[in-house]
Write a structure and sequence with these properties.
Layout (H helix, E strand, L loop, with lengths): L2 H27 L9 H25 L8 H8 L16 E6 L2 E6 L8 H14 L3 H10 L4 H14 L21 H16 L8 H15 L13 H9 L1
Antiparallel strand pairs: 1-2
Helix pairs in contact: 1-7, 1-8, 2-4, 2-6, 3-5, 5-6
Length: 245
C-alpha cells in the first residue's frame, strides 16, 4: 500500500471518530436552550467582557508577530469569534457563571473553564446580541490606533448598556444551573468538534454505536500487523510505481 493511501485510511478513521463526537455533542447541546429572560440583565456585562477579551487576544497575537503590525484581517478573525464559547477566542465565556446576588444577575469569573451548557450559551447569546453589529468598528478602531480602548469599548457597548437592567432585580422565574468545571483535554476536544462542524457542515455524521462498529471492523482488518495488513486493493498508480521500481 502506498504511503499516500495509508495516510488516507488513518485520516478517515480519525475523521469518523471526530464526526461521531460532533453529532454526540450536538445532541447534548440541543437541550441547553438559553434563558432568554436573563439577557437584558447580563447583556451589558457580557458586551464589556467580550470587548476586553478581544483586546487581550489582539495583544497576545501582536506579541507573537515580532514587531510586525497586525492587519485588519488578523484582528477581524479574533474579534468576530469573541462571542463563540467553543472557539479559543471566545473561551473566556466558559470562565463565567451567571450568579444570583440579592435579586440581581451577575457574571462572576470562576477559577477555570466550565462545560458550555445553558448559562454559558446564555452569556454567549448576550454577547452576540450586543456586538454582532460592532465587530468591524472594534477591528477598525484597533487597527487605526487613534481611538482609546476605553472609547472603543464604550462605543461598542453603548446600545447594550443604555438598556441595561443589571441594576434592577430580576422578577422572572429562572433555573440557576451549577457551574461544572471541565478538564483541558475535554475543552480542546470540544473546540476541535466545533472546528470540524464549521469546515464541513454538510458532512455525514455517525452516532457513537455506529462508530464503535466501524472501528471494531477496522481493527479486525488491521490485526496485529498494523495498517499494512488491511485488505485494500492497490490502485493503478501503486502498481505502476512498483513496476517502475
Amino acid at each position: 500500500m502506498s504511503t499516500k493511501l495509508r495516510l488516507l485510511v488513518v485520516s478517515s478513521a480519525v475523521i469518523l471518530l471526530l464526526s461521531a463526537s460532533v453529532i454526540e455533542a450536538k445532541s447534548k447541546s440541543s437541550s441547553n436552550a438559553i434563558q432568554k429572560k436573563d439577557l437584558p440583565y447580563i447583556r451589558c456585562q457580557a458586551c464589556q467582557l467580550g470587548v476586553e477579551n478581544a483586546f487581550e487576544r489582539v495583544d497576545n497575537l501582536a506579541s507573537t508577530k515580532s514587531g510586525v503590525k497586525l492587519t485588519e484581517n488578523d484582528i477581524d478573525e479574533l474579534v468576530e469569534k469573541t462571542c463563540t464559547p467553543l472557539n479559543e477566542n471566545g473561551r473566556w465565556i466558559r470562565h463565567y457563571d451567571i450568579v444570583e446576588e440579592s435579586g440581581h444577575l451577575k457574571l462572576v469569573q470562576q477559577d477555570g473553564p466550565g462545560k458550555c451548557e445553558t448559562e454559558c450559551r446564555t452569556i454567549a447569546a448576550a454577547c452576540e446580541d450586543a456586538l454582532e453589529d460592532q465587530y468591524s468598528d472594534i477591528s477598525g478602531g484597533l487597527v487605526r490606533g487613534k481611538t482609546s480602548r476605553d472609547k472603543i469599548k464604550a462605543n461598542a457597548c453603548e446600545h447594550a448598556c443604555r438598556k441595561d437592567k443589571s441594576s434592577k432585580k430580576f422578577k422572572h422565574e429562572r433555573t440557576d444551573s451549577p457551574f461544572v468545571p471541565v478538564d483541558p483535554e475535554s475543552l480542546q476536544m470540544e473546540e476541535m468538534q466545533e472546528m470540524m462542524a464549521a469546515f464541513s457542515p454538510g458532512a455525514q455524521m455517525y452516532g457513537r454505536d455506529e462508530m464503535d462498529d466501524m472501528l471494531a471492523s477496522m481493527k479486525d482488518q488491521v490485526g496485529d500487523n498494523g495498517i499494512e495488513s488491511m485488505d485494500i486493493p492497490s490502485t493503478p498508480s501503486d502498481t505502476e510505481h512498483t513496476e517502475e521500481l
